[in-house]
């Protein structure tokens, strides 16, 4: 079974709580997020989300991952699958690491595994990685510009 890992990160001048608030404001994603176009659902371990991603230059993909971790102010992680387990699985992780007063490192990564990962490696490295980087920069801009928080 093929495996592949993508990892991106960016430093953001804001508190972990501020970054977390923007990440969990799913209703605002269509307004600022160039990669994850929408998320619906409750970020709670065991819950299922409805997610639409669209890397720039790629087509939109919808899936219903299961939340593995929802650690407030720190980590949101989910597992998405294409068709059946082992075909194309992706464990997506959004991690906020405090670096000091008012500064964090935001990390976005995904571990892919399954039969279709090998043939998809080129588009993962090109399109999906670009989507991660685009989202990271947009998140940084939104958080640092002080976009309104929603409860």
UniProtKB/TrEMBL annotation:
Origin: domain of life: Bacteria
Entries under InterPro entries matching the protein: Polyketide_cyclase/dehydratase, START-like_dom_sf
Entry coiled-coil feature ranges: none
Pfam family, one: Polyketide_cyc2
Descriptive protein name: SRPBCC family protein
């Amino acid at each position: 079974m093929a495996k592949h890992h993508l990892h991106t990160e960016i430093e953001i001048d804001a508190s972990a709580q501020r970054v977390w608030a923007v990440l969990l404001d799913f209703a605002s994603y269509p307004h600022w997020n160039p990669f994850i176009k929408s998320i619906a659902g409750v970020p709670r371990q065991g819950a299922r989300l409805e997610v639409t991603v669209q890397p720039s230059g790629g087509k939109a993909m919808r899936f219903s991952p299961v939340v593995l971790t929802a650690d407030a102010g720190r980590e949101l992680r989910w597992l998405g699958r294409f068709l059946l387990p082992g075909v194309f699985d992706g464990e997506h992780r959004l991690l906020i690491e405090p670096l000091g007063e008012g500064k964090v490192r935001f990390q976005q990564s995904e571990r892919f595994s399954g039969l279709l990962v090998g043939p998809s490696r080129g588009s993962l490295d090109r399109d999906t990685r670009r989507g991660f980087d685009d989202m990271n920069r947009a998140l940084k801009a939104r958080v640092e510009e002080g976009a309104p928080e929603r409860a």
